[in-house]
Amino acid sequence: MGVTIREKTKGSNQWWVFVNSKGRRTSRKVGTKSAAQKVAEKIQARLTLGESLPEKKPPAPKLEEYYQSRFKPYMKLTLKRSTCITFESNFRVHILPQFGRLPLDQVDRQKMEGFISKLVEGGMAKDSIRLILAALSSLYTHALDNKLVTENPARGVSKLYRQVPKRHKKPEPLTVEESLAFLSAALTHDPEHYPIFLLALHCGLRSSEIGGLQWGDISWHSRSISVRRAIVRGHVTTLKTESSERTVDCSDDLLRVLADLRRRRQKQALKSGTQLCPWVFTCRKGQPLGMNNVKARHFKRVLRKAGLRDLRFHDLRHSYASLLLAQGEPITYVANQLGHKNPGITLKIYSHWIPNESQQEAVNKLPSLSRQIEAIRSATN
C-alpha cells in the first residue's frame, strides 16, 4: 500500500498522484507539486484509517462530443437566437478545430495561453477574441455545473489579450448639408424606402429596431415611438440591452411621412379585403422587411446618387446623435434617445461633436485684473 507523487513527463510541472492499495492501482493528474502533496496526504490518511479508495470516475467526454450532445441544446434553450448563432460560429470555426478532440479535463491554462496567442498572432480583433472565449467559458461553466470538470480554463484570461487594440470603426456622421442631400436623393430615387431613411436620421434607431417596428408602437398624440423589439437575421427578438427599450421623440416631418404610409397601406388592405399588417415596413408577403437588403443595396445606391462618400447604415444613427449635440441638446437627452444606459457612453462616442464655444468663453469669466491694468497703463500714459 502506498501513495506517491511525480511528474509523468519531467519538467512539465504537471504532478500526478499514484495510489497502490489492496491490488488496486489508480492515478490522477492534480497540477502543481504542492497541490499533489496535499491530495496525497489526504488519501494516505484515509487508507491508514482503513477506508477504501473511491470508485474511479469515468473519463471526461471529449469537448466536441459534449458540445454537440449537451451544450448546444442547452444554448438553444437559454440564450438569445443571435447569441446562439455567434457561439455556434465560434465553436465551428475556432474552438472545435483546436480543442474538439481533447477530453474536457485536458484543456488547461497552458493550452488556453497557446490558443489565445494563436488568435492574437492571426490578427484577430479584441472583441472577436472576447466572444470566442465567452463561448468556451459558457461551455465549461455548464460542465462545472454537471461536475464533469473542476475548473474553467477560459475564465480570467482577459489579461492575455488586453494589449490587442479594438477595431471599432469611427463614426462618420453626415453634416446638415450632407443630410439634406441624402434625403433629397432618397426621395427622388428611392421613395419606397424614404420613410426608413428618414426614420433612421430623425430617431437614431438601429436597423434591427427599425425592422421590428409595428404600427402600435407609434403614438400620434404624444409624437413618439416606443422601441420594444428587434429583428435579427429574420427572427423577432429582444432588444440589444434593457436600456434599449425606450420611447423616442418624433419630428413632425417624420410623423407626416409615417401617417401617409399608413393611409396607403390601409387602402391596399381594404382593396384586397385584408387587415392592416401590424409591421410598419414589410416585404410583398407581409412579413417584416429584411433590412440587410435595404442596407446593402438601397442605402448604398442613395449615397451614390447623392454624391456622398461610402458610409454604413449605422452612420445615420451617428448622424442623428451628432446633429442633436451640435445644436446644443443636453447629453442626457441624446443618451436617452439612443438607449444608452450611461450618458458617459454617449459622451465617449460623440464628444467631438459637442460645441465648445461656450466652454472657451467660460475661461474669460475667471477673476482677472485686466481692467485695472488697463486703467493703470492709461493713467501713466
Topology, please?
Layout: E1 2-7, E2 15-21, E3 24-31, H1 33-48, H2 63-78, H3 81-99, H4 109-121, H5 126-145, H6 176-189, H7 194-203, H8 207-211, E4 218-219, E5 224-227, E6 230-232, E7 235-237, E8 246-249, H9 252-272, H10 291-306, H11 315-326, H12 331-338, H13 343-350, H14 357-362, H15 370-380
Antiparallel strand pairs: 1-2, 2-3, 4-5, 5-8, 6-7
Helix pairs in contact: 2-3, 3-5, 6-7, 6-10, 7-9, 7-11, 11-12, 12-13
CATH level-two architecture of the largest domain = Orthogonal Bundle
Structural category is mainly alpha
Shape: extended
- Total domain units: 3
Count of helical regions: 15
The whole-angstrom Rg is: 31 Å
What's the total count of β strands?
Answer: 8
Within CATH, the superfamily of the largest domain carries the name: Intergrase catalytic core
Widest sheet: strand ordering = 1-2-3
Q: Summarize the main sheet.
A: 3 strands, antiparallel
Spatial separation of the terminal alpha carbons:
109 Å
> What's the mean pLDDT score?
88
Question: Strand percentage, roughly?
Answer: 5-15%
- What are the segments in which pLDDT stays under 50 over at least 5 consecutive residues? none
CATH class of the largest domain: Mainly Alpha
Q: Helical proportion? A: 40-55%
- The SSE string, one letter per element, is EEEHHHHHHHHEEEEEHHHHHHH
Q: CATH fold name of the largest domain, please?
A: hpI Integrase, Chain A
Q: What kind of oligomer do you see?
A: single chain
